[in-house]
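User: Let's play a game. I give you a shape written as tokens, and you guess the letters that built it. Ready? Here's round one.
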């Protein structure tokens, strides 16, 4: 989750009484928290859509908003910042939902079908074959989930991004050398991530 997605703090007088809300107020607080999270997500969708309007001019307006919604949903599910996923997307497919690489990586986050199938199976994500990777919401969720798994495995964004682009075997070899662990790909994505975050606040 993003730092804006945390629960609302309760007033002190409500938390001191037996350490919890009275029953009626608990329901109200729960609703308020939900509304705050929805408001935060709506704002992120709006911000990402505006960025796509300037960086993805070849994408239809409705598709830009669908992509933005998919990014925010993937962020909520995996905890990976939507703007980092946006940076990966720009590097991988230049925002083209139907992109196919010479190595048969597909869709917005350029996921190979075998990887997509395995990630979907491990994480209970609906899978209908490689056509799933041409559906923006599914591609984004699978790609984000895979990247989260790599981050968990390698312990750094430099190596996780390198593994995403070049494969885990190559990333392990780089990690074993212990020097200059950042690939050019990872450096580009992380620079773009910072630029996108800055653009979102302007």
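Assistant: Ready! My guess for every position:
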């Amino acid at each position: 989750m993003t730092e804006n997605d945390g629960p609302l703090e309760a007033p002190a007088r409500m938390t001191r009484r037996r350490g919890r809300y009275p029953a009626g107020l608990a329901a109200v607080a729960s609703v308020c928290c939900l509304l705050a999270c929805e408001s935060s997500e709506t704002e992120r969708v709006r911000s990402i859509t505006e960025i796509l309007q300037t960086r993805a001019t070849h994408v239809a307006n409705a598709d830009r908003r669908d992509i933005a919604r998919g990014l925010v949903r993937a962020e909520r599910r995996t905890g990976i910042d939507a703007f980092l996923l946006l940076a990966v997307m720009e590097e991988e497919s230049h925002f083209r939902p139907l992109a196919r690489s010479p190595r048969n990586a597909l869709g917005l986050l350029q996921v190979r079908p075998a990887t997509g199938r395995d990630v979907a199976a491990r994480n209970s994500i609906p899978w209908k074959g490689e056509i799933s990777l041409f559906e923006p919401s599914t591609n984004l969720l699978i790609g984000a989930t895979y990247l989260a798994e790599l981050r968990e495995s390698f312990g750094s964004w430099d190596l996780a991004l390198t593994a995403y682009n070049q494969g885990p075997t190559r990333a392990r070899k780089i990690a074993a050398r212990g020097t200059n662990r950042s690939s050019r790909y990872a450096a580009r994505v992380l620079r773009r991530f910072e630029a996108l975050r800055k653009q979102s606040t302007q």
